[in-house]
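FORM 7B: Structural annotation worksheet

SECTION A. Query
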Amino acid sequence: MKQIIVPLDFSDESINGLELAIMISSKTKAGIQLVYVIGKTSEISDMSKDEEQRIAKSKLREIQAKYEHKLPSGVELSYIVKKGKVYKEVVEQADAFENSIIAASTQGASGFEERFIGSNAFRIITASEKPVITIRHGVVPKTFRKILLPIDYTQDTRQKVPYTAEVARIFGSKVHVLAVSGGRDQELVQRVKSWANQVVEYLNDGGIETEFSTRTGEDITDIIVDYAGSEKIDLISIMTDQASSIANFIIGNNAQQLLNRSPVPVLCITPRDLGVKGGFATSGG
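SECTION B. Predicted structure
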């Protein structure tokens, strides 16, 4: 984790993404790059794109001056102004760095909301091959002391484990592995428990402290949100289902609900084929 990309719209809520990035950088020494995207129409009242760019750069310099002293010594806080579709430009900027993540608030200014907080917030997550950490509102955690790792019935549910383990090692986190099943299919419940036990074994073998729990219920999002609150979780790690059409990205229903409701930051990882040393399967039976 060498670079953190932070989309900004200059609202107080979007600054949460920057403050979250600063917290992560304090542990990882990752550089931070702020990204403002000028779309087809100006986001700052009725003005030309050149004028919007001038104002955006001025505001970015102000934010840079205000926050750069909070970063570890030698770590750079930079910025860039881009033109185009928000989600495409943010994802492309993250792709410009070999080992990067995106840290973003999922709430922002009303003028920015239709493009970013609506479908584009989810498009950034599903379009990106890089991990995305989102934060809705409230206080940014001082660290990731406790990470919640829900394991469900989906084939790709374990793909988030290796990256979550990396985060846990960086922050010295305890990982709460939660086997969560919807409905009353006992065969499915046992399968999820088996997968979750494999995850616990993998994490313990890597020297990571764990706590294992099981929950069943009709609403998986309710289960995860309730558990996060009761156990004072600092970060939830999830997979996001990815589907594409000609120009549309659709995030999995449970993931979207969790992003809309989570009281803590959410680490979003998109499914892909992964190989992990040591015989741990990230997908399949």
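SECTION C. Observations
Residues 109 and 167 are 30 Å apart (CA to CA). The domain at 146-269 is CATH 3.40.50.620 (Rossmann fold).

SECTION D. Sign-off
Analyst initials: ____
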